[in-house]
Amino acid sequence: GRIDVRPGENVIYITTRVPSPKVSRYIPRFAPNLRRADGTVPPVDVIHLHHAVWLSGSRRDVTAPQITAERLFAAGEEKTILSFPKGYGYYNDASRRWLLNYMVHNQTSTRDKVWITWDVYYVPARSLRARGRRVARVTLDRLTEVG
Questions:
Q1: Were both Cys, which of 28, 68, 70, 124 would link to 56 (CB 3.0–4.6 Å)?
Q2: Alpha carbons 29 and 8: distance in angstroms, whole number
Q3: Is 72 helix (H, G, I), strand (E, B) or coil?
């Protein structure tokens, strides 16, 4: 939903109301952004998505088991786009519940309204294109095949 950003705001939020794919699928590309109601993207020197981390509340993090939610995707001011090599994709089961931890920074003296958006490119798990697709799991320094 809409985020009302106060002047100078730099607060971290977490929400459990995150739309996630309702069909099991491979996600080969994930592109986040920040948009105003008219669809424009504010310049990063005005309002920016300081950071955002999409998590799955359905399983523990594989790289840090003490974290009770698996980190799926992350982005920062540079609007990081996750794009796996051809033939790879993050497997997302339809039953997973997504969460979002984020911080939006307003560097102006006026209130604004923005939305965090994300384009999820996917290949349905039962499609012909999914045959032979390798499941990928990302760590901080490498891409690994896990299935």
A1: 70
A2: 32
A3: strand
Q: What is the pTM of this model?
A: 0.77
Q: Which among 114, 139, 82, 121 is positioned nearest to 13, based on CA atoms?
A: 114
Q: What pLDDT, in 10s, does the model give residues 2-11?
A: 889 999 888 8
52 DSSP β-pair partners: 75, 102
Report which DSSP code applies to 31.
Answer: E
Q: To the nearest 10°, the Cα dihedral for 73, 77, 79, 85?
A: -60
Neighbours of 61 (CB within 10 A): 15
Q: Compute the mean pLDDT over every residue in the chain, rounded to the nearest whole number.
A: 81
Per-residue DSSP letters for 75-115? EETT---EEPPTTEEEEE-TTPPEEEEEEEEE-SSS-EEEE
23-68 confidence digits (pLDDT tens):
788 888 888 888 898 989 999 889 988 889 988 888 888 888 888 8
pLDDT of residue 38: 92
Q: What is the CA radius of gyration of the chain?
A: 16
